[in-house]
Amino acid sequence: MPEQDLLFFETSGFSMWPFIRPKEKLLIKKIPVDDLRPGDIILYRANNQLACHRLVKKNRDFLWTRGDNSISSPEMITKEMFIGKVVGIIKNNKMISLTGWRSRLINSFMVIIAPLIIRFLKPIYMKLHKR
């Protein structure tokens, strides 16, 4: 894989928590938009900022993304905003590949389960931390 097809990105927010945490480094690969599948984690530019969220749906013209830590509706972006796909995460100085069949299965599952987990667990978490 040519080096010009790879980028590193350091995360700063909590939108993908707990799957991706702040200050973790992501390995981004430039790929054709047509090669994306729902469940893939992508990097894109929105409002002059970089965002990293999970692809939940795509069609011929648009991509819909959502952070794992969000119960809101997916955000629609254009294909021109897409930068690349996350193919690895550096956690505790170890590279975790997101390219194998297990990772693809987990990522696809996360499209369905993440909003449900956040919807039910976030209120409990917030109540516990108010005490």
Describe this structure in words.
This protein is α+β, with helices and mostly antiparallel strands and 131 residues long. It has a single domain (3-130), classed as Umud Fragment, subunit A, CATH 2.10.109.10. The chain is 23% helix and 37% strand. It contains 1 helix and 8 strands; from the N terminus they run ββββββββα. It has one helix at 101-130; strands at 6-10, 25-29, 41-46, 49-58, 62-66, 75-78, 82-91, 94-97. Strands 1, 2, 3, 4, 5, 6, 7 and 8 form an 8-stranded antiparallel sheet that branches. The longest helix has 30 residues, at 101-130. The mean pLDDT is 86.
How would the blueprint of this fold be written?
Blueprint (H helix, E strand, L loop, with lengths): L5 E5 L14 E5 L11 E6 L2 E10 L3 E5 L8 E4 L3 E10 L2 E4 L3 H30 L1
Antiparallel strand pairs: 1-2, 2-7, 3-4, 3-7, 4-5, 5-6, 7-8
Mean pLDDT: 86
Stretches with pLDDT under 50, minimum 5 residues:
none
What is the CATH topology assignment?
Umud Fragment, subunit A
Task: Look at the structure and give the CATH class.
Answer: Mainly Beta
Structural class: alpha+beta
- Biggest sheet layout: 8 strands, antiparallel
E-strand count: 8
CATH evolutionary superfamily: Umud Fragment, subunit A
Strand content: 35-45%
| Rg | 15 Å
Total discrete domains = 1
Number of contiguous helices: 1
Anisotropy-based shape: globular
Task: Write a concise keyword list for the protein shown above.
single chain, 131 residues, alpha+beta, eight-stranded antiparallel beta sheet
Compose a concise summary of this entry:
This protein has 131 residues and is of the alpha+beta class. Helices cover 23% and strands 37% of the residues. The chain has a single domain, classed as Umud Fragment, subunit A.
